[in-house]
Amino acid sequence: MYRFFFIALCFLSIHLNGQGIHFFEGTWEEVLATAKEEKKEIFVDIYTTWCGPCKQLDKSTFKDANLAAYINEHFIAFKIDAEHSPDRGLAYAFGIGGYPVMIFFDEYGIQKIQARGFKKPQALLGIAKFAKNELDTDSVLLQYFKKDIADIDKEELLWLFDRFDEFHIPQKSMYLAKLHNLLTDEEKEDMKYRYLAQYPFLSEGLKSYYIEKYTNPSLYNPDRDALIAMRYNVGRQVESEYVLAFSAKDMEAFKRALTRRMDYAVKTGQVDADERYILEEGYLDEYIFKQENRDKGY
Questions:
Q1: What are phi and psi of 84, to 5 degrees?
Q2: pLDDT tens readout for residues 80-114
């Protein structure tokens, strides 16, 4: 009897592990609550229904036993359809324009690292371990993120603003909007480039404000160099280099283009040396996958 029970239990365990990553059913707010309760971090897969590499992740990578065991143990996994999910606003909050994108958050919903494009199981496992172990989250900063925004004054918001380059949370647009409303006209002018650098995280109203105020011929004077140097514009250049790399016709051309892309990313502070190694491995896997499946429309 006990032997039968043991065999049945083993079979059930193997069957459950074979299901791959267990994705949470619910809302983002429920994910955050569960993560805090279970003291786990968060893994989010942002996809679209028409995305070939997204489907391939579901069919292969997310079903890998080693990857699934690690993600299921350390993270609350969550899926967001960037076009149809009630939580699709997260995709826009993090400035995502291509799919798939996988984001690792800590238990408070603070972004740690993104993994873009198709990833083989071992590559994604490496990124997950990097996200889990390498970031030392600022506990003082977390105290502010857990406070009601109505209780945070202008000086505190200015302090938070100085840290936003390193910490990204979905509620970031609310902090930026409140600070903007508390600034004087002179302060807004002084901080315009810093706000433009946070463009992907601005509310629609603030985006319109900065587009109308600063997208004009005056940007073509020498002062425009300061704007180009900001993170948002640097990010756009990095994405341009990424597109050029993946248009390469053969592996050697791709590697040369990828080297230029990563050199630029390191030079402009987009990634550090450790991130570069992880990203290069992921991009190489993605290029191989796309070349092997280009006739399928992926």
A1: -130, -15
A2: 998 888 888 777 666 666 788 899 988 888 888 88
Parse the chain into domains and list their residue ranges: 13-134, 139-215, 231-296
- Report which of 52, 86, 67, 41 is spatially closest to residue 290, judged by C-alpha positions: 52
How confident is the model over 52-72, as pLDDT tens digits? 888 889 988 999 999 999 999
Q: Which token pair is 114?
A: 């993104």
For residue 51, the SS3 value is coil
Per the CB < 8 A criterion, the answer to whether 298 and 56 are in contact is yes
Structure tokens at 297: 């429309």
CATH topology of domain 13-134: Glutaredoxin (3.40.30)
pLDDT digits (tens, 9 = 90+) for 139-149: 566 677 777 88
Dig out the tokens for 218 from the structure: 């005056």
3-state SS assignment for residue 65:
helix
pTM for this entry: 0.51
In degrees, rounded to 5, the angle at the alpha carbon of residue 72 between the alpha carbons of residues 121 and 91 is 75
Question: Could you give the CA distance from residue 267 to residue 262 in angstroms, rounded to a whole number?
Answer: 8
Cβ distance 80 to 90 under 8 Å?
yes
Token pair listed for 74:
């350390």
Q: How far apart are CA 166 and CA 127, in angstroms?
A: 18
Contact 117, 283 (CB under 8 A): yes
Question: Per-residue confidence at 166, pLDDT binned at 50, 70, 90?
Answer: low
Least confident of 96-100, 168-172, 249-253: 168-172
* Tokens at 98, concatenated: 């291509």
Q: Which long-range contacts (CB under 8 A, 24 or more apart) does 142-147 make?
A: 142/108, 142/110, 145/108, 145/110, 145/169, 145/171, 146/108
